[in-house]
Design a protein that fits this description.
single chain; about 200 residues; Nucleotidyltransferase, domain 5; five-stranded mixed sheet
Length: about 200
């Protein structure tokens, strides 16, 4: 059973991101403030849910949340500043978009840069421990999937509708065959053979 909050009697925002390990597309983060004693029988880490469950939950999260926001950092910025900084930047953008200023922030993972002097807590596997982080993981994942589904219409040969830009064999085969797009992350290892070539 996921917990409702880390710090009681605080307006607490949960943050998570999606798309960190992808070869193409942006990294997307979400920040969610839920009612303090919120419960939901289905809400969990987005990776443990089906696509249908995630989209159903997104509607409910957006209806039930006190506030929520999404932040997006594109692949060019990822190449410029690296994926860790880009993931945190996306979370900061989401937090900045909240209409309600949180008093405490909980983040999935073990790295974060302070946001506006608001106290925060990094929690490894937080998306399977706290409801607000799980809610953020669902929003980040579904919003990112929507973006990749749209890009798939322009670049169908990479099948982003299915792999969402992750490094599947099929995706790497398409890169080998068709080259890269303006949405590929050029600082990532796009092809398996790059491992033996970069020396």
């Amino acid at each position: 059973m996921l917990q409702s909050y880390f710090k009681a009697n605080n307006i607490e925002a949960g943050c998570d991101e999606a798309g960190r390990g992808c070869l193409a597309g942006p990294v997307v983060a979400a920040a969610v403030i839920l009612p303090e004693n919120y419960t939901h029988p289905l809400l969990n880490d987005s990776k443990k849910l089906t696509e249908k469950q995630r989209y159903k939950l997104r509607v409910e999260i957006e209806k039930d949340a006190i506030d929520f926001a999404v932040g997006i950092v594109d692949n060019h910025t990822i190449d410029e500043i690296n994926i860790l900084k880009s993931s945190i930047k996306a979370m900061h953008i989401a937090l900045d978009e909240l209409k309600i200023i949180p008093e405490h922030i909980i983040i999935d993972g073990n790295r974060f840069y302070k946001f506006k002097n608001i106290p925060h807590q990094c929690i490894v596997k937080g998306d399977s421990k706290y409801l607000s982080i799980a809610a953020a993981s669902v929003l980040a994942k579904t919003y990112r999937d929507d973006l990749m589904n749209d890009l798939n219409k322009t670049y169908p040969e990479y099948n982003w509708k299915q792999n969402k830009g992750y490094p599947t064999k099929e995706h790497r085969k398409a890169i080998r065959e068709f080259g890269t797009t303006p949405y590929h992350r050029m600082t990532f290892r796009l092809l398996d053979e790059q491992l033996s070539l970069d020396f």
